[in-house]
Amino acid sequence: MNKTFLLLCLLPFFAACNKKEIPVEEVIETPTPPPTEVEDTGYTSDHEYNLNVVYFVPTDNPAKLDYERRLSDIMLSAQTYYGNQMKLNGYGFKTFGLLTNKSKKRIKIITIQAKYTHDKYTTANLSNILAEVDAYFVSHPDEKSGVHNLIILPSQPSGVGNPYVGVGRSCFWPDRGEEVNSPTGLGGLMHELGHALNLPHNKERESRAKSPNYGTALMGSGNGTYGKSPTFLTEADCAILNTNQIFQKTTSIEYYGVVTASVKSIYASYSADKQAIIASGKFTSSVPVTAVNYYLDPNYNNEGVGVGHDYNAVTWSTKVIGTDSFYVELPMIEMNDMFKENNPAELKVKLIHENGNITNATYNFNFLNNIPMINLPLAGFDKSEWSIIDISSEETTAELKPASNMIDNDNSTFWFAKHSAPAAVLPHHVAIDLSRNNTADGVTIRQRNDVYRTVKDVEVLISSDNVNWSSIGNFVVPHAAGDFKIPFGSSRIFRYLKIIVKSNHATATADINKSCIAEIGLYRGQ
Q1: CATH, range 52-247
Q2: DSSP helix, strand, coil percent of the chain (3-state; round to 5)
Q3: Are strands 371-373 and 358-368 parallel, antiparallel or unpaired?
Q4: Is the pTM of this model over 0.85?
Q5: Class assignment of domain 261-376?
Q6: What's the chain's Rg over C-alpha atoms?
């Protein structure tokens, strides 16, 4: 081998091993370049449906600084809050879906450039916003991930007219920039988001108001306490959210489809022994019911009823008994002071359907000396097979008020004894065929809703053959709204029922024979 070649080959080896031959200052380390940061633009979710988060920007009111980061942080926190509240109520960590990037630090925010200036998008012009958002989704169907929307606008320059409300399955909220991180701002967002997720107003029970584990209900006054003191979702809230479209990871249900349902029968009365309203009943529904919610709502200071007047409603929720029944005890100790001033009140029974719909039935009652004057019958009888087989008279003029109105399950309709010439005179009577033998503990009579031309003295008779009649007795029906219970004293079995009206509450000679009854029913239980 060529010695010169061998020497050249060996020199690098000896040089590499002999470190003393190379001064330290001559060793140069090349720094590793930082990884190239790739923008994460893909958004995914483990839910089948997700909340649409929309940032709606008027032409003259630009988006607030850094809104994507800020709102991502806020909504990811909200998602965790809702999940924890569901877990506390026995549903596991179940929350609404959000589309997030791979790092799960940013949520998908759909930014929509509006057509007009900010003054066209105030609280009074919500329809303008909804129309443009809907139009955007029609043009970009892949951007819509569910039917629930959080629509955020930069706050109005004047601060007046900021959309800040829940309407249907959408809610509107003003972005005030960094100021939004105040507890009041975040509480307002969480409260309005609840409305967009199907939640009505409701208030905490007294025991929970005093508990550090509960505090204030979010859908009551929680918009002022969230982030500052304990704020929670009630069990009624969580029962509703459990069947919400965007709370499902996988499902084959068509959400918010048509439901035919009603409370078929209800019994509700005050138990002095338990110091509670005890309510039970049956319902019918074309879609399975997963829970039954109960709202006791006082009409405080004649504030009115319905949406916006239900902040004081105290709530409970129960599972369905079997497939069509419910039972609940509502302790008066849980009522707030607004119930203790003899205010009128409502008992709302809400059927929570598995497809996200809610069927509501409302029953009015009053308080007297802090005691609920509630007396609803446990009918348990299907009136669809009942029929009127005999009447003394009924009004058949243009104001048709037939006796069949007394068994139509509609409290707004009523029977009116014939008052057009020649008018019928007392006593009046009506006989009902129940279609088969029934066991009942009493009968109920309901006066007209407007408590006008009400009956007073009545006799109740029963029969198994429509020939031989047994009198239960004579009773005085009060001049008051609601169902009046006439007890039999013991359970009776019969097929035919007769009511004889002997006098009315009217005193004027012209009205003395004018009798009306809205509904006749039966009940079991005392």
Answers
A1: 3.40.390
A2: 25, 35, 45
A3: antiparallel
A4: no
A5: mainly beta
A6: 34
